[in-house]
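Re-run requested by the PI after the first attempt was lost when the workstation crashed. Everything re-entered from the original request form. Ligand of interest: adenosine-5'-diphosphate.
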Amino acid sequence: MALEEVGRIYGDVGVGQFKVALTTPVERGEYLSVEDDTHHRVLCQISQLERKSDATAERTLETIAHGSPYNLADALFGKANVVGFRENGIVAVPQLPFKPGTTVFRADESLIADVMGLKENGKTGAYVGMLRGHALKVELDINQLVQRHLSVLAKTGGGKSYLVGVLLEEFLKHNVTCVIIDPHGEYGSLRFRSEKMRNAERFGVESRGFKEKILEFSPDTTLNRDAHPLTFSLKNLDARELLTFMGSTNVRGYVAPLKGLLEAASTANAEYTLKDLIRLAHARAAEEGNPTFESLAEKLEYLEETKLLAPVGTSLHELIVEGKMTIVNLRGIAPDVSELVVTRILGTFFEQRKRGKIPPLFIVIEEAHNYCPQQGQAMSSRILKTVASEGRKFGLGLCIVSQRPARVDKNVLSQCATQLILQVTNPLDVRAISQSIEGLTDGMTEIIQALPVGTCLVSGGGFHTPLFCDVRTRSSRHGGESINVIPT
Ligand SMILES: Nc1ncnc2c1ncn2[C@@H]1O[C@H](COP(=O)(O)OP(=O)(O)O)[C@@H](O)[C@H]1O
Ligand SMILES: [Mg+2]
């Protein structure tokens, strides 16, 4: 098929950039094809557009004054970047500028797929959507995602959880073991098929649920009824951790007395329980008349009610099952307790993965700014930094999800080799993103701020340069629907 001509190169031409006078309208971000001196078809991309005209202020006013129709001449001009051509499997760029006057065509899909590195139906491909404006599938290499980590960033309501749901569906189809830290209890809906299949034909997806592949755990099964209890062994916790589970803010005053109680309890009986600790605390309070022990007894009684601790806590083999997805539902759990839960389970995964006791894992951290903040410390910061920097050696992949990229620890975020960016408007977040992505042009930074819901920028993931992707429709139900105050 003949290529569609869209314009000609004009003016001064650079090696990586050129100007084009357009005879057919093209959109910002559209791919072009230009033949160079050595007869390579080179992939290029429109970065900026401008409609130039002779409509000066005076002439415009004159037109209005005379009541004549607005017919001042205008024409469309664009700036384009050179992406490159593929030769012997490698993307190269022409070493000489194109000649002014060279014809510019709309790029055909085979050229785009070849140069950008888009592959369809790969054995390890996670199909996340279609290249914007094209019938080309965007598939991310699952091995690379797990080995080199991933971030999903956008403002609230930008479509992060929806996109993570798409990714998880793909991981489940490929039998990859996943764990998701789910602060809002949104991901249990992956069990059910979606009833709203928008554009199902374009994306070629079928409605289905993943019930048989999902395990869900929560420290609070009264609130989160679909979950199994997530409990910890009393014996594995030190005084400080116990105090966090009790929601104690005055850690300092209690650490030493609680240490004393733990020692006494374990000396008396290696299989001590919370009841033993409570009894001891009451006894000490009576003996010594020390109100700290009375208050500790009360705290321990509260902890007993929460059912977070058990003589034998949830085992690793209950929590992680090869080829299945484990949801750690933290809905309704206090922030410091959530941090402790994340710290303990990630710590265990890291140690056990090192020993090869669990399969390679893909771990999603929703609301990551709470678990590894840039400013201040969360209890979980350390283990997240460790997994981010060393996890790849052991097959622990991270997916960092956040609506405040500027507030996520840079040490963690900078380890994510693939970034999926949906709409971001906060200037600090835009800056954090543009600083962390290689090959992001000014034009792309502008586009990110105006992306419609459902379109994301993919950077990394094995593609030659960042690209825009229309996120595919979910097969399973999305759990994070926006809620109307007034039903419509
Ligand atoms: N690709 C998409 N296609 C259709 N609807 C989407 C898409 N992405 C997001 N939405 C809708 O937008 C809303 C917000 O998405 P969500 O993923 O929950 O946002 P976030 O997690 O970023 O706050 C939801 O109601 C969801 O249904
Ligand atoms: Mg969300």
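Saved to the shared folder this time. The CA atoms of residues 157 and 483 lie 11 Å apart.
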